[in-house]
From TrEMBL:
Molecular function terms from GO: electron transfer activity; heme binding
Any Pfam family hit: Haem_bd
Stored SUPFAM superfamilies: Cytochrome c
Originating species: Arenibacter troitsensis
Name the UniProt record assigns to this protein: Haem-binding domain-containing protein
Domain Haem-binding positions: 5-140
InterPro entries on file: Cyt_c-like_dom_sf, Haem-bd
């Protein structure tokens, strides 16, 4: 028990690398596609913490091991999809990512449940899912 407490206190002092760049590059998904503000709002709140270079850190990020858990999701999430770097993808990659984003949203896999459990505002309603899926489909059709 004492050992456990010492470890828990000890790990609080190990720093993490904040994922915070205040710069929104020209290659950002929202800018490249001139995304309508309603969709933009939803995706930024629900997805950008893990899929961009700028995380709005929650209170629990001050506590280990929660901060590591979030950090690992950010690193993994960014490596498969970074909305800030959208413009750097080829048209083929854009289309395949759009398909994957659409299916993750439609199937309710994203945003991750472990995340929406705390971030209630990131939860997507059925209407949100349908609305975004339709938009993504149109966007995909507009890419040759
Ligand atoms: C808490 C962090 C987190 C949030 C929030 C989040 N994701 Fe993810 N996402 C991940 C992680 C981690 C992976 C990789 C592991 C996996 O697929 O489960 C991933 C994988 C994906 C993939 C698969 C990428 C590929 O091509 O293989 C897509 C698409 C995706 N996310 C879209 C979204 C969308 C859209 C949202 C918002 C509606 C979102 N994510 C919100 C962490 C997150």
């Amino acid at each position: 028990m004492i050992f456990f407490l010492v470890v828990m206190v000890g790990i609080q002092f190990i720093p993490t690398n904040p994922n915070q760049s205040d710069v929104v590059p020209d290659t950002d998904f929202m800018l490249v596609n001139k995304v309508p503000s309603k969709i933009r709002g939803i995706i930024e709140v629900s997805c950008y913490d893990c899929h961009s270079n700028n995380t709005k850190y929650p209170w629990y990020n001050k506590i280990q091991p929660a901060a590591w858990y979030l950090e690992s999701h950010i690193n993994e999430g960014k490596s498969v999809l970074n909305f800030n770097e959208w413009g750097t993808l080829s048209d083929r990659r854009k289309k395949s990512k759009l398909k994957s984003i659409k299916s993750q949203i439609k199937n309710g896999k994203m945003p991750m449940q472990s995340y929406t459990f705390i971030h209630k505002d990131a939860t997507l309603s059925g209407d949100d899912r349908t609305y975004i899926a339709k938009y993504l489909q149109e966007l995909s059709s507009s890419i040759k």
